[in-house]
Amino acid sequence: MMVDVADLAATGVAPARRCAYAVLRRVFERGAYADEALRAEARGLDARDRALAMRLAYGAVQRRATLDYLVEGLAERPCQRLDPPLLAALRLGLYELLYMHGAPDHAVVGEAVALAKANARAGHGLVNAVLRRAAREGPDALLGALSDATPEQAALKHSHPLWIAQLWWQVLGADGARALMAADNEPGELALRANTLRTDAATLAGELPAPSHGDAVIPEALVLEAPFDVHGSPLWRAGAFAAQSRAAMLVSRTLDPRPGERVLDLCAAPGGKATHLAALMQGRGEVVAVERDRRRAGALARAATRMHAPNVRVELADAREPRSTEAAFDRVLVDPPCSGLGTLQAHPDLRWRMTPQALEQMARTQAEILAAGAGVLRPGGVLVYSTCTVSPTENERLIAAFLDSHPDFRTDDLAAELPAYSDGGFLLTLPHRDRTAGFFIARLRRS
Fold first, then answer.
1. What are the start and end residues of each CATH 1.10.940.10 domain in the chain?
2. Is 267 a catalytic residue?
3. What tens digit of pLDDT does each residue of 325-341 get?
4. Fold held by 244-446
5. Catalytic residue among 19, 267, 338, 388
6. Which of 108, 210, 217, 297 could form a disulfide with 228 if both were Cys (CB 3.0 to 4.6 A apart)?
């Protein structure tokens, strides 16, 4: 069943809650991606309501495991036995009662009941009873009983699949794993990259309707301090900025391309890094941006046009395939598809989609793309490998295996350049520590 905000307008429920409820049903009943569902359902909402709808919907998707555990205890029945429209209302209402503390409890309960009544054949009385009981007991009692002393307990308290909790327990230690999982359930940064082919960060900051602050390491970065409709802004349409995390900006900065060079960007869509490379090169030289999906390649070309990056040339090709014996590249960026475990704030449903088996398959593909990129780098050239994940299989172990089979490559020690993000000579950003997405960045040179 297609769920649309307009279908719920007659319930008298606030627009943000109507939107969030529709997003939850798209995600859990139809398998939609949360960000795409939000874009579809939030049309027509003002910036404030859109931001609230995003917080409600993303939060309820992220906290699904914890919410379902509590729903089953309060309702005294398994979630599988609940009608999906009722379960969506319970998840939404319980999330707002326990984690947001903004609206009065009676308003939260009343509107969740109204949504259930309008969309389910029966059972709205159960929604009323469960949420009223939750409001009486309160978040301190319901959430305070949850521990995170072990990976199993932390997976439930912080609502992550157990395998992710166990992975990060090993990689980051218990305290780091807890902190990262807790951060994954908070709103992520909204950062913009000023397009230096058109403007600079100071000028852009003065033109934005929302307050912002800069970054000490990345001069073109701005972090917004209030909700902002990025893609609805005339500044975005004019190519004055791109929405991009500061961690993603570090990737192009680490490659450090120079004007006049020839640069290869593998797996380049949607174009944030390709257009950043072009700007760092002052529009001079060439960025060959490779993408195998025709639709995404078209979006990449449009991004380059919007960002006034004439030196970006889009190539429709499979990044895994060895390239022809064309002239070698001065610099190569390998930014392959990955598990995305560093972006769980921005992609709330990803934790429930990713599996250890998919991660292993991705690592094999990443190794193929890295080898293809290395094969066309000139002697003395620079290659950057980056992922938006916190996973040794896709990061440190993959680089170690590559170096074992490619003795003509060595890694740069990035500790002196960016000590705040350094991790064993590589760069690693972490949401709980750095307040940006989780990225791994390695820089290699061909001898």
1. 5-146
2. no
3. 567 999 999 999 999 99
4. Rossmann fold (3.40.50)
5. 388
6. 210
